[in-house]
Amino acid sequence: MDSVFRLLLRILVIPIGLLAAILAGVAVILFGQWRIGALANQSLGLAPETWVAIMEALFTGTFLVTFLVSVMWLVALVGVLFAEVFAARSWLFHVANGAVSAFVGARLFPRISGEATAPADPFYILAAGLAGGLVYWLVAGWSAGFWKPVRSRPPSPTPQPPASAA
Q: Where does the sequence pass through the membrane (predicted)?
């Protein structure tokens, strides 16, 4: 019964971890490469029409970046499956999985990432993968493994044979 509960828990935790990793990758790209904070500071004195146009562009861009990072994490599912099958719980494994999958995902799908017109900065792609891998480990990777519990129960002591009265 304990293994069934653990399997159901892993089925719930893995998608939550993937969603958190996607959000972390999107945040790195939006605030790092796009410099959203600097854009907001510069646009305080703009006309309302310009401000609405900037917000529409940010909303659309955020949607597209979320799609891009989601595609990158489809590649990472191979590493997540490996971690679950072999109970790989190392944060280094999950961070490396995020970085490699972001880089490979951006190279496999260049039309989605916009590299056909302007190449994306690989620094921010790798940074998004590193951040996503770390966030995935914090949410779901530290307890990876369908069959291996995090804290195993101590073995029950074997009963000692009664001492013979002599």
A: 7-31, 51-83, 90-110, 122-147
